[in-house]
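RESIDUES AND SHAPES:
===
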Amino acid sequence: MYTLNNNKLKISVKKTGAELCKITALKNNTEFMWHADPEIWGSYAPNLFPIIGALKENTFVFENSKYELPKHGIVRHNKDIVIQKQNDNSLTFKLVWNNNSLKKYPFKFEFYISYTLTDNKIEVKHTVKNIDTKTMYFSVGGHPAFKCPVFKNEKYEDYFLEFEHTENSKKHLINMANGLISSNTKTVFNNTNKLPLTHDLFNDDALIFKDLKSKKVTLKSANYGDILSVSYKDFDYLGIWAKPNGNYVCIEPWLGIADHENTNQNLIDKEGIISLSPNKSFEATYTIEIDNSHLV
């Protein structure tokens, strides 16, 4: 476990998967991350690369060859990740292609994720480098799970998400049988910026948004006000998710999305896929900000 701290926060990151697993207020020990209960959902904040969500039949096609990738890709749970750099306020982890990864994902890459702690903010920066001789195709995203409720004597329904702008947006429904995006949508926002949290909100799996105006979401308590916010200006999609019986909420900035039901499974044609030329790099950052009122 690697840690960073300043006079406000301490964060902890596991080497396996380079997964952020604790955000703790130093002065009062308030914890803001979900505790990864394996009986409900045993993760904290998986890093998603080179796909988001599920592939149809766990398979994609590239240059007429088929490859199998698990849900969310090859960084999550990966033990080949190494610490590349550490200083007083940042940690950078690195994953490099190998012969095993080429069997699942036919590109030579370097994947970096860095966590920088500044005041009451954690900046999560993804860097992808194409060190292959051909264009590579990928998606990248975050999956942080925040404790909800945070404080004792609260219930889940005391919490809501407040979006930066008033929204009129639909969620894109998931086929529960295969985890793929269906053609069906359901209105979530009707000229509002608030999303009340209830456990049954996630009975149909994640809320997936493609057209939000907001690039910042704040987790709020009816009793304690602003808890934390996630800012994601570099990301086009947003997922909101929890297991229906889990006391947490995931705020997930994505560049990419799960396969559609009617996909042709060709990686180049995949919705939201990013193309990166040889010897080029790509960066995308989101920021978690803990409200200062809970750090004293």
Remarks:
- The chain has a mean pLDDT of 97.
- The domain at 2-294 is CATH 2.70.98.10 (Beta-galactosidase; Chain A, domain 5).
- The chain has one helix and 24 strands.
